[in-house]
Amino acid sequence: MLKPRCEKDALEDPAGFREALRTWFAEVGKDYPWRRTQDPYAILVSEVMLQQTQIATVLGRGFYARFLERFPDTQTLAAAEDDVLLKTWEGLGYYRRARMLREAARVVESDHGGKFPQDHRAVLDLPGVGRYTAGAVMSFAFDEAQPLVDGNVARVLSRLMDFSDEIDGGKAQKQLWAWAEALLDQEYPRLHNSALMELGQTHCRNGQPDCLECPVSKFCRSQNPAELPKKSKRVKTTAVDEHVVFAERSGGVLLKKLEKGRREGMWRLPERTAEEVKEWELLHQRKYGITRYRVTLHVHSDEGLKVDEGEVWQPIDKIPDLVMPPADRAALAAVMGDGEEIA
């Protein structure tokens, strides 16, 4: 891989590094909606959504705009009922994020009189807000000089400093944050942090970086950046089978609302054991991933089904308004042969 020679360490010439990064970003920085606002609430929403979801998904499918239209401020979000909140979040996954965002909004309403705090410590104390998210809100909303280290920034810093430690360890994280703070542009923190993150999304991307077009390549120590960053071995994916039943009666489909777990408050097709359904016709099968599990969902026909406690016949025309896991909704559409009816 072609890579320009390192001319100067970024820590030896932080002003030069900052200027090169800032100049590049001013010319090519992307126009994201959360970059057009300084509303700390709207910025918090974007940061929480982007924690485990790609930008293309958040923007391309309208999640960000739709959420802010439904919950334009902390007052409306704090008052949101679970069904409405989860339905608005549906499709983003990791639904605990939505509930924690609501908890943060409730604290803003109860402890700060509905006015979003402008103090870093107070933002950090909000439910579900960690060091990165608090720094992002303070940096992007208030232009306060706070260092940021997310996955993109960690990759940039690892290559910039030729850092070969596994970056998910505590000691390595401490070092990355120290470098981020040392390089932080105190005069233009909002621009600097946005630029550093975008550099990781573009030129210093995962896998094979584009070093020839990198605006700060002359500050980069690494000779083999594609080999960085190092991470500890991933947890092995576990295969899991789920068996559910499709039962329809008089225009209604049997569903069950989950009362606990990561999908609490969502409606699913009724689960049964593999032994119970082993003789039943298999109608549909699909795979999906959730955390470290690779799940195969088996949808079986209704053959002498006994309705269990908590299972409800939901009218088909009401199903679009229910909150459902994407895999169940897609499976139901496939079995019924009419995705438009239940989408």
Describe the structure.
The strands form two sheets. Strands 2, 3, 4 and 7 form a four-stranded antiparallel β-sheet that branches. A three-stranded mixed β-sheet has the order 1-6-5. It is globular and about 75 Å long. It is of the alpha+beta class. The two termini are 46 Å apart. The chain is built from 15 helices and seven strands. Helix 9 (131-142) packs across helix 12. Strand 5 (282-290) and strand 6 (293-300) form a beta hairpin. Residues 339-343 have low confidence and may be disordered.
Strand content: 5-15%
Characterize the overall form: globular
In percent, how helical is the residue content? 40-55%
Instruction: Give me the secondary-structure category.
Output: alpha+beta
Total strand segments:
7
Distance linking N and C termini: 46 Å
